[in-house]
Amino acid sequence: MPHHADYSVEDSLADLEILDLLTAPEPPSSPELHKKQAYKRRDADLDPLLLAAAASYGHVTRNHYTHDFFPAVGDPRAEGAYDWTKWQPEAPGARKERKPRLKYESRQAPRSQRLKQAELQDKENGSARTATSPLGCADNLPSPSPKSPTTSPAASTSQSLLPPSPELEVKCMARTRVPTPHGPVFLHLYHNNRDNKEHLAIVVDPAQLQEDAPSVAPHIRSRTLDAVWSETETEMDRITRGAYVGRLSKDSQKPSQPPRQRADVPTSDAIPSPLVRIHSECFTGETIGSMRCDCGEQLDEAIRQIAQPITIPSPSDPTHTVTIPGRGAVIYMRQEGRGIGLLSKIRAYNLQDLGHDTVTANLMLGHGADERGYAIAGAIMRDLGLGADGTEGVRLLTNNPDKIQALEKEGIRIVERVPMVPRSWQRRQHSKLGEELVGVHVHEEDERGRGATMIGGGEVYGEDLDKYLRTKVLRMGHMLPLLSDLSDA
Ligand SMILES: Nc1nc2c(ncn2[C@@H]2O[C@H](COP(=O)(O)OP(=O)(O)OP(=O)(O)O)[C@@H](O)[C@H]2O)c(=O)[nH]1
């Protein structure tokens, strides 16, 4: 409980009464609740822990939990406005006066209005909303997770009345070469007919730049990008959207062939299947270098590993070896916060600071632990010829068993899983065993140099990260040996 100077025993008792009410096994229905004065008025701040505890119980509706209240600090003339920048600690022994009351405003329209609006919308759409799904009317609620056990049969019936969604289509709208600390990549931007997000594919296949060298492995190219889009499309249009071959320059501008006219390069068993990672967007980890998660490091590490040169027996003389450039792709999905979005992820971090883990925090906000889908990722991979029917399959960089299952359901052929061990865990494990870090990609100075354009550039580490990684292993089934298990080995 907070120790405000004006927080009294009465307030604590009132809090306990509220906690009892909110977390009782049954929702309150007794006449007691309706009696006037049954619960005493209280003016002290509500303890966030109390709210969190109450919210983790079933019958407290998300409707209440996600109300956004904010004091009217913006308008100094508003009733109860208080400028917190001028706050001074109270002198000991000073007379306790009640703080000016803050005026709270809900950003949600009253429920009656929202219900009316939803009814109107339903009439316009011709769909029947059942009276049992009033939560569906709130516009600031997360959409119910497909995994959510709270989805009522009535809700799913009304969903089945909706027209079936059109077959998923993805189209690569543009492609360009981007030099990175790990070598050149081709950035592909995709549109699709399921969501309005611009998903990306970071294709590592530098052999494509050496146009004159004989191809030993099929190039990773987008079918939709190389297709002819219209009869009026000019060569310059095609080149501008990235449908070219080789290294584009003032002296070299060769439009690509449409997929059907391209000669197939046979795949050789000697060449490992392309290495692929499905990566989910993480603004905090990738842009401001948050060390609450390892997402930024994973993105860097994935590109680094995919770009590693491959040594294979020489096709002309098997007694010798040749080195070919690395091949693969990172499919970068705009599924921030495991699909819950940045706003909810930021709120989830606050719940994590209150002591909840990454899974519980999502659940407390009315989301699933993981709301991501992989249909679009699968379609992008098929467009790039990665893991599609009749191709060589892919090696997938992941610890997440759900991801493997979901992609296989999408018809993607995964021939091998390549684990992603966090750099800090590798380094600590190796230093525990007193091993030299020869050949292990955690040499800090080296990494800092190489990843200079990525925030931090080295490894992420810290208490928050360890807790997050342990939860992924213990609660989300990630296939990663815990640091403690490694040290016993
Ligand atoms: N909701 C939520 N999302 C998080 C949190 N930390 C990272 N993320 C998101 O998690 C996603 C990355 O997922 P990970 O669990 O690291 O990786 P994965 O894709 O499931 O599995 P791997 O392939 O093994 O890395 C990104 O969208 C991040 O924004 C968190 O604490 N809460």
UniProtKB/TrEMBL annotation:
Pfam families for the chain: GTP_cyclohydro2 (PF00925)
InterPro entries registered for this protein in UniProt: GTP_cyclohydro_II, RibA, RibA-like_sf
A Gene Ontology BP annotation from the UniProt entry: riboflavin biosynthetic process
Catalysed transformations (reactions): GTP + 4 H2O = 2,5-diamino-6-hydroxy-4-(5-phosphoribosylamino)-pyrimidine + formate + 2 phosphate + 3 H(+)
Region (Disordered): 89-166, 245-271
Xref: CDD domains: GTP_cyclohydro2
Segments of skewed composition (Basic and acidic residues): 116-126
GO molecular function: GTP binding; GTP cyclohydrolase II activity
Boundaries of every GTP cyclohydrolase II domain copy: 273-419
EC number: 3.5.4.25
Keywords linked to the UniProt accession: GTP-binding, Hydrolase, Nucleotide-binding, Riboflavin biosynthesis
Feature: compositional bias, Low complexity: 148-162
Pathway(s) this gene product operates in, as recorded in its UniProt entry: Cofactor biosynthesis; riboflavin biosynthesis
Family the UniProt entry places it in: Belongs to the GTP cyclohydrolase II family.
Protein name: GTP cyclohydrolase II
Lineage, opening ranks: Eukaryota, Fungi, Dikarya, Basidiomycota, Agaricomycotina
